[in-house]
Write a structure and sequence with these properties.
This protein is globular. It has helices at 2-18, 22-34, 65-73, 81-88, 105-116, 151-171, 182-192, 197-204, 208-222, 227-236; strands spanning 40-45, 58-62, 93-94, 121-128, 134-141. The protein has a five-stranded antiparallel sheet with strand order 2-1-5-4-3, sandwiched between helices. The mean pLDDT is 89. A hairpin with a 5-residue loop joins strand 4 and strand 5 (134-141). The protein contains ten helices and five strands.
């Protein structure tokens, strides 16, 4: 059984190595992690705690879009206990290993809200890069099935994927998207402020069909599955603000 797991790990790493884009790499990573019930993930560098543009360090985003938007709006990053643990420890850990009794109320709120968005259990793999800031691959789901013997395999896969994506980013081969037009940014900004399509049409003097057409173009440019996902991606590219 262990040999089978190691064989699957090498096969996954081989497919990740041959991926020609960040999207292809992340698809293979997602598939490999799903075997352990880990459906959601984030792969990112960890800048200083009070860096308000920390999201520029993200290499791979597999979080639920609604949770990403909540995390950004509530400014959870400086208070995230997983982030704090990753800064100080090189060892992988499960979310439930964090000392809940010593968590500040704000840190506990981050974990409680993550559970509300289908991420009750998770794993973090801290990555400490020489001459650079730390990073992390975190993966979670409502329930996970990760025996202790699988943790070294998961750690290997996470570290390899992080390095592969970092290499693409450094070489300028990461997945890019066309910039939004001024009108698209304006329209998405109103959506980020909670306005409906009908509201936006009225504010901008457009028809509802035109607003919906703009939204389709925005989702296409950002490779977003819905408006919330588009807002998150635009925020991370600093094309809109909240």
């Amino acid at each position: 059984m262990e040999n089978d797991s190691i064989g699957e790990l090498f096969a996954a790493i081989s497919r990740i190595d041959t991926g020609r884009s960040a999207d292809a790499i992340l698809q293979e990573f997602r598939s490999a992690m799903a075997r352990y019930g880990l459906r959601h993930f984030l792969i990112t560098g960890l800048p200083v705690p009070h860096d308000t543009a920390w999201q520029r360090e993200i290499l791979g985003d597999g979080w639920p879009p609604e949770w990403s938007l909540r995390y950004l709006k509530e400014d959870h990053f400086p208070h995230d206990p997983c982030v704090a643990q990753c800064r100080h420890s090189p060892q992988p850990f499960r979310w439930n290993d964090l000392p809940a009794g010593r968590m500040l109320a704000r840190a506990k709120l981050v974990m409680d809200e993550a559970a509300e968005f289908g991420m009750r259990e998770g794993i973090c793999v801290p990555i400490h890069v020489p001459l650079a800031g730390p990073g992390v691959v975190t993966a979670a789901s409502d329930r996970i099935d990760v025996p202790a013997s699988a943790l070294p395999l998961i750690e290997t896969l996470c570290v390899h994927t992080f390095r592969r994506l970092s290499g693409l980013e450094a070489s300028g081969q990461g997945s890019g998207a066309a910039p939004l037009t001024a009108r698209e940014r304006e329209l998405l900004q109103w959506s980020a402020e909670g306005k409906s399509n009908e509201d936006i049409a009225c504010i901008l003097g457009l028809t509802r069909n035109t607003v919906e057409s703009h939204h389709r173009n925005i989702r296409g440019k950002l490779d977003a599955i819905n408006v919330s996902h588009a807002i998150v991606k635009a925020l991370r590219r600093q094309e809109i603000q909240i």
